[in-house]
Amino acid sequence: MALPREYTSEDCPVARALEIVGERWTLLIVRDALYGVSRFSDFRDHLGIPRAVLTDRLNLLVENGILARVTAASGRDEYSLTAKGEGLWPAVWSLITWGNEHYVSEDGCRPFTHVGCGGTLAADGRCESCGTRPQPGELTLHPRAKTSPARKTDPVSQALSVPHRLLTPIARTPAQ
Amino acid sequence: MALPREYTSEDCPVARALEIVGERWTLLIVRDALYGVSRFSDFRDHLGIPRAVLTDRLNLLVENGILARVTAASGRDEYSLTAKGEGLWPAVWSLITWGNEHYVSEDGCRPFTHVGCGGTLAADGRCESCGTRPQPGELTLHPRAKTSPARKTDPVSQALSVPHRLLTPIARTPAQ
DNA sequence: TCCTCACGGTTCGGTGAATGAACTTATGGC
DNA sequence: GCCATAAGTTCATTCACCGAACCGTGAGGA
Known about the structure:
The structure is a homodimer.
Chain A: H1 13-21, H2 26-35, H3 40-47, H4 51-63, E1 67-71, E2 77-81, H5 83-86, H6 89-103, E3 112-114, E4 139-141, H7 155-159, E5 164-165
Antiparallel strand pairs in A: 1-2, 3-4, 4-5
The structure holds a DNA duplex.
């Protein structure tokens, strides 16, 4: 029962995309993968997703060519985005901008900057400084301006509390 | 039980957005609303969604200010996108381009053109001709180049089998 | 007036998925 | 060997989705 339920309008690209990425949790996993998360426990601790569901979703994403499963030197499996998976960045960015506009306060937004020139990423996905559309790997995610009171303590939240370049692995050193 | 289940990372704009549009069917309803669908039966016939689920999702979208429910002259309720709802167009467009790239054949793609100048909409959401980023209401959706064999017979599919400007109501004349 | 139909729901039983907790296996360090 | 961790798997409960049947209202026709 690996395949998710299908939408009937199979000729519509939105429906086709949502058959995979519309499943609960999958787009958040892709988002974390864009942030550089690659290990099972990091996805789990950061998202708070049940283990069985995470297993199912990772398999789904690997089967559909969005994530690639590779066995790291440590012997543990790691998951990284394929080119097809990185192609979801515009969709994720659209949701980031929409969510920021309607649900996040002004000083709660986390800016993205273009690694090449330092410009801020505008809502249309272009660098305000140089005008190009950076790939996700060319972007740095910054912490929000106002430090929020309650901080999560999982490794991913720790790694994202300082400027972090997308698609680069998060630090594996345990906190504290 | 109107509210959908919440994702834990409430400080993330993607998670906040997905709490609403990440629910099954909701983004397809928004897509249809962008196409100009406004009536319960049209959503139902075009999407093949169960009535109870459609009722639930329409209420959810109205409560969250994405759709507005208005009683038409006929006495029937109609649903139209708010400005906040139209703000989801970039996300829908991102999924259209991603879905087209990976799941739709070259001649199966339906082009969007800019009403003002007639230019085709590029993957980055800009008009290839004039370079602007048209709002959804300034776009026309065209049928695919190759006529597909099996056509659906519901009013929405009929209306979209010819060029149709987004956000304009679909024809209410019954087919046949 | 009565009948019928279409539309927009609501209700209900059956089914499958999500959830959290407990259990299993494999790996590495001491 | 012993312990800790990582990555699953299994399981009972809960919950959402599904399809079908059932309501309530308004329009149109005989």
